[in-house]
Amino acid sequence: MTESTTPPTTRPEESLDDADHGAETGRRYNYQYAWGVVLLCGLASGKLKYTALWCEHHEDFLARRDDGKYDAIQIKSRQTTLGAWKSGDPGLRTALTRFTELYGKFGHTIATYVFVSNMDLFNTSDQKKVRQSLLCLKKAVDDAGLHERLTGDFAAVLETLAGELGVDREHLFAVLHLFEFQKGPSLEDFEDVVPHTHVASLNGLANAPRQELNELRDALMNLVRKASSRTTEDPAKHWYCLNATDRTDPLLAEKEITIEDFKAVVADRRSPSFSYVMTAPDVGLGRGARSLSRFEKKVLRGGLGRELDSFRRRTLSAENHLLEVQYSQAEQFERMLNDLVSVVKGDCDDASTETQRDDVLYGKEMMRVVQERLRERAHNKCRSVYDQEYECLVGIAGLLTDECKVWWSTEFDVEGEA
To answer: Which helix (H) or strand (E) holds 114?
Structure first.
């Protein structure tokens, strides 16, 4: 008789998945995009003599130097438990194979082949282990200068490595001579290092708030991510091939990031959004369930009877949402509510001026204009409304209606209206 076992009591949502391959893959891609931001910061500061950067074009990054040549840059992140890169590790071999193929295709147009990783390259003075060290082989290559001068054990190491990679021995020698290794931040802290070390080094950003630096990091990573994809919104993608060469392919153009592109992203995130002066609030929150009798009379007088139910729901939902925001963001809520109300009231006033006429039933046209303006803000000018959704903005217009700050018809005696 077998002894029964008690099933574990740990619930799935209470335990991290140690084999979360999706998250790990995403982190490695983000590491690559973050290194693109590092390169762009160096380009913008003038510390890297680059004039443009291509993403996922022949290599992870292809950087054009100010001498007209290029640096081919490959990013390979690695678990720390695996230790330093050895010559037999697949990731390093893949990089060497790709570099050698590029050398065969482009020759000395590429000035440097750069291998970037969060882990070091294995190095040793133990003669029994030098075959495992790419750094030792590179030193021998640099000392020899010409591949025919490479003799002894390292000549055999090069011959064996070229055979295992399936590449030309002389080309591999040339690549090793042009090879550079750069140590990147760790997988655990690169999301902090990039904004607070590299982005913060740019002019005017040394004392920028932490949140602003993080937002800039994310915006710049998105720039690199977009350039790394094989997508473009340029309609020329459907006709360029009729009479053009690769260099005019809009997909290729999308992969290039110039210093102007970089500066545009930084300027957009840094430019202060318009802010209203603080005034007495036009809406009061937390009054409990609203009867909305004034609201209904004004909406109906404006000819918006069919819109009444959805407008009421959005109004009540917006009030509940803003109360939740007040609780979670207490420090900035007063400023936030002031700006939101000012923006929405301004758009409503502009719409009223644009559509108002003697006929009291101009509410439908005014509502259409208000909705267009608020939808544009929510989708394309989200900074001006603190990233609030369109439904919330329409609800704020309803709150202003209830407070008699917005009218959908000519004004009338709401309290005296039956």
So the answer is: strand 110-117
Residues 250, 240 contacting (CB under 8 angstroms): yes
Q: State whether residue 268 is helix, strand or coil.
A: helix
User: Please, are residues 383 and 267 in contact by the beta-carbon 8 Å criterion?
Assistant: no
Residue corresponding to tokens 């133990």: 126
pLDDT per residue as tens digits for the range 365-400: 999 999 999 999 888 777 778 889 999 999 999 999
Q: Are 254 and 231 in contact (CB under 8 A)?
A: yes
Q: At a CB cut-off of 8 Å and minimum separation 6, what does 64 contact?
A: 50, 51, 52, 53, 54, 70
Cβ atoms within 10 A of the Cβ of 27, count?
15
- Owner of token pair 């009061």: 284
Q: How many Cβ atoms from other residues are within 10 Å of residue 21's Cβ?
A: 8
| Residue entry with tokens 């990091």 | 217
Task: For residues 362 and 301, give the distance between their C-alpha atoms in angstroms, rounded to a whole number.
Answer: 10
Written as one string, the DSSP assignment of 132-189 is: G-HHHHHHHHHHH-SGGG--HHHHHHHHHHHHHHT--HHHHHHHHHTEEEEE---TTT
d(CA 267, CA 272): 9
Mean pLDDT of the chain: 86
Q: What is the pTM of this model?
A: 0.61
| SS3 category, 65 | strand
Integer Cα distance of 5 and 148 in angstroms: 69
Write down the pLDDT at residue 239. Answer: 47
> What is the per-residue pLDDT across 197-217, written as a single tens digit (0 to 9) for each?
999 998 888 888 888 888 899
Question: What count of residues does the chain have?
Answer: 418
73-90 in b/e form (b: 16+ CB < 10 A) is bbbbbbeeeeebbbbebe
Residue closest to 400 by CA, chosen among 365, 370, 369? 370
Q: Can you tell me the distance from the alpha carbon of 309 to that of 307, in angstroms, rounded to the nearest whole number?
A: 6
